From TrEMBL:
Residues 1-80 form the GST N-terminal domain. The lineage of its organism: Bacteria, Pseudomonadati, Pseudomonadota, Betaproteobacteria, Burkholderiales. It comes from the Bacteria. This is Glutathione S-transferase family protein. Residues 85-204 form the GST C-terminal domain. PANTHER family: DISULFIDE-BOND OXIDOREDUCTASE YFCG, GLUTATHIONE S-TRANSFERASE-RELATED. InterPro entries: Glutathione-S-Trfase_C-like, Glutathione-S-Trfase_C_sf, Glutathione_S-Trfase, Glutathione_S-Trfase_N, Thioredoxin-like_sf. It comes from Pelomonas dachongensis.
Length: 204
């Protein structure tokens, strides 16, 4: 299987960490900012959104990082990461969808302005930071409730995708609220294979 996308992309690292946890060896090619442009026709034919990552598995092509993570787990039958039980799986996917929608939208203005240098007003940045901290506090409450991983005792894809997001929050040049459950959870995750390379590597 081949993955198109640069390692400076959080969404690419999300897939690479999933693959590592599953024992999969993805052939990654650099595409995106600083590398080959996703606006090239050959890339647009694979993903008309012109975004990384894109997975190629034989004649099957897939985009959207969380969907790719789900596919890799399902393909390998890794039920701990993506449980077979409908209720347990729905809970994992609920938190994955929350990460991709609610949490990502909360930090977008602040991160793109403070880290990527895109223009934004001070008021808009402050509002984004406040929303980011508020959403992270929801994750902290969930982790305090489980005392382990996002959905309970076992590591799942919810921990993978939210682990990347939490590390971005931790590294961002913002004023953060104290979230002890998130900090303890990240420390536990740091012992997992691939964490140092794809999560705790200092990349934004």
């Amino acid at each position: 299987m081949k993955l198109l996308g640069r390692l400076t992309s959080l969404n690419v690292r999300k897939v690479m960490w999933t693959a590592t946890l599953l024992g999969l060896d993805l052939d990654r090619e650099d595409w995106g900012m600083g590398f080959r442009s996703p606006q090239q026709p050959e890339f647009l034919a694979l993903n008309p959104n012109a975004l990384v990552p894109v997975l190629i598995d034989g004649d099957f092509t897939l985009w959207e990082s969380n969907s790719i993570c789900r596919y890799l787990a399902a393909k390998t039958g890794a039920t701990p990461l993506l449980p077979a039980d409908p209720k347990a799986r729905a809970r994992v996917e609920q938190w994955m969808d929350w990460q991709a929608g609610e949490l990502n939208n909360s930090w977008r203005v602040a991160f793109m302005a403070l880290v990527r240098g895109q223009p934004a007003t001070a008021e808009a940045i402050a509002a984004s930071v406040a929303s980011w901290n508020r959403h992270m506090a929801l994750l902290d409450a969930q982790l305090a409730h489980t005392g382990a991983c996002v959905c309970g005792a076992d590591l799942t894809l919810a921990d993978v995708v939210l682990g990347l997001s939490a590390q971005r929050w931790k590294n961002a040049p913002i004023e953060r609220v104290a979230l002890p459950a998130v900090e303890a959870w990240l420390q536990r995750l740091s012992s997992r294979p691939g964490f140092a390379e794809f999560v705790g590597n200092g990349m934004p």
